Amino acid sequence: MGRVVIDVMPKPEILDPQGKAVVGALPRLGFDVFTSVRQGKRFELEVEGDVTPEVLAQARRAAETLLSNPVIEDVVSVREADTAEVQA
């Protein structure tokens, strides 16, 4: 069984209130090295068999048409999950 990981992020020009809330809270919790936070979405899709270039192409099409809103979000990554991601 294979797994595809898709990352979707808000476009840079789109306001990210969740990211702003997190970046405001980090210093109060002692994390003072971070200056910006953008919050996105991660999807994990399982497939029968291996992850092939055709599977990745279908995953990208799914990400662009269903898993993201192309008006306000960018699909930033479509990749096969590595072993560490699968076990996490």
TrEMBL record:
* Full protein name: Phosphoribosylformylglycinamidine synthase subunit PurS
Annotated function: Part of the phosphoribosylformylglycinamidine synthase complex involved in the purines biosynthetic pathway. Catalyzes the ATP-dependent conversion of formylglycinamide ribonucleotide (FGAR) and glutamine to yield formylglycinamidine ribonucleotide (FGAM) and glutamate. The FGAM synthase complex is composed of three subunits. PurQ produces an ammonia molecule by converting glutamine to glutamate. PurL transfers the ammonia molecule to FGAR to form FGAM in an ATP-dependent manner.
Enzyme Commission designation: 6.3.5.3
Gene3D superfamilies, sorted: Phosphoribosylformylglycinamidine synthase subunit PurS (3.30.1280.10)
Q: Which GO terms describe its cellular component?
A: cytoplasm
Q: Which GO terms describe its molecular function?
A: ATP binding; phosphoribosylformylglycinamidine synthase activity
- Provide one Gene Ontology biological process annotation: 'de novo' IMP biosynthetic process
Q: Give the reaction(s) catalysed.
A: N(2)-formyl-N(1)-(5-phospho-beta-D-ribosyl)glycinamide + L-glutamine + ATP + H2O = 2-formamido-N(1)-(5-O-phospho-beta-D-ribosyl)acetamidine + L-glutamate + ADP + phosphate + H(+)
Report the SUPFAM superfamilies cross-referenced here.
PurS-like
Q: EC class of this enzyme?
A: ligase
The protein's assembly and partners:
Part of the FGAM synthase complex composed of 1 PurL, 1 PurQ and 2 PurS subunits.
Q: Which UniProt keywords apply?
A: ATP-binding, Cytoplasm, Ligase, Nucleotide-binding, Purine biosynthesis
Q: Tell me where on the tree of life, at the top rank, the source sits.
A: Bacteria
Q: Where in the cell is it found?
A: Cytoplasm
Query: Which family does the record assign?
Result: Belongs to the PurS family.
Q: Which residues form the signal peptide?
A: none
Pathway, per Swiss-Prot/TrEMBL? Purine metabolism; IMP biosynthesis via de novo pathway; 5-amino-1-(5-phospho-D-ribosyl)imidazole from N(2)-formyl-N(1)-(5-phospho-D-ribosyl)glycinamide: step 1/2
Supply the InterPro entries for this chain: PurS, PurS-like_sf
